[in-house]
């Protein structure tokens, strides 16, 4: 992962650092998070959409946590009736890019969205895809057929949109914050969703309220997910002096945040590195592991080397190959499973 993508300035670091009282949204699945698994959460279809499925809806897509070395990346989609797009989101609730809104405002908007009886709950639907650090890294580090971050992000976006369509929602307009070249991404989505008007552009989270709302869903979910992951490392660490607050320990989780890199250095196991919370494919993590004297070097056998590969049957010999003198007991079960071969095999 290039350092340019990983870096943030001090103002962005402050905005990306999870608050202490972040709303614990229903998109937080603790068992999956602690297991290092990726998962998808869909909120119920809102009454304003469910009671009139033919009506046209608008949908926005955005992500949070693309660059950090710690924690998941989260994709969010947000949809509502097209006629309420700007009046409800921009004019009444002042949705904006989640990086512009304060952590407290983001959390309050998410809580309102998840509270029955509010206008946001009754009119808006949303979903998130939590892409774990473990799954991101394992895909990027595959020896053959590397699955890069852009491809993973595009697939997450496409899957979320397809799942909204599968629920019967009549999505007529889609707005997406760009990944890579906007025109290439837009053409790909247009081929998959040919009857929908699609706009992919930079800064879409600042231009289209539904993308802004998707950004809030993604960011609040990531903030709460980071808290779950960090508190688990505190339990496993068993150090009384470990900071209680994630802000004091991991900070934003970005490599340019000194709190994150300091924690990584202080908690690196020489053999296993870190747990499910770390993206091993990031240069920050790889450089720490490969630094002289920091880690244990392991040489794994080449799974494609047929000449060196052992078979299970190599460790046993058949009864017919056993010397008769060795089987004088007459016990027919003695060699039922074969006889271990010499230690020289190893």
Describe the structure.
- With 346 residues, the protein is an alpha/beta fold.
- The chain is built from 15 helices and 8 strands.
- Strand 5, helix 10 and strand 6 form a beta-alpha-beta unit.
- The longest helix is centred in the middle third of the chain and has 29 residues.
- It starts with a helix and ends in a 6-residue tail after the last strand.
- The N terminus is likely disordered.
Which features characterize this protein?
single chain; 346 residues; alpha/beta; six-stranded mixed beta sheet; two-stranded antiparallel ribbon; 13% strand; globular; disordered N terminus
Topology (elements, then pairings):
Elements: H1 3-6, H2 10-16, H3 30-35, E1 39-42, H4 47-50, E2 57-64, E3 73-81, H5 85-92, H6 103-113, H7 119-123, E4 125-131, H8 133-140, H9 149-166, E5 171-177, H10 182-192, E6 197-201, H11 204-207, H12 209-237, H13 246-249, H14 258-266, H15 283-290, E7 316-317, E8 339-340
Parallel strand pairs: 2-5, 5-6
Antiparallel strand pairs: 1-4, 2-3, 3-4, 7-8
Helix pairs in contact: 6-12
Write the H/E string, N to C. HHHEHEEHHHEHHEHEHHHHHEE
- What Rg do the Cα atoms give? 26 Å
Largest sheet entry: 6 strands, mixed
pLDDT average, as an integer? Answer: 85
Helix content: 25-40%
Instruction: Give the overall shape, derived from the CA principal axes.
Output: globular
Unreliable spans: 2-6
Q: What is the rounded distance between the termini?
A: 39 Å
The fraction of residues assigned to DSSP E strands is 5-15%
The tally of strands reads 8
Strand order of the largest sheet: 1-4-3-2-5-6
Structural class: alpha/beta
Number of alpha- plus pi-helical segments: 15
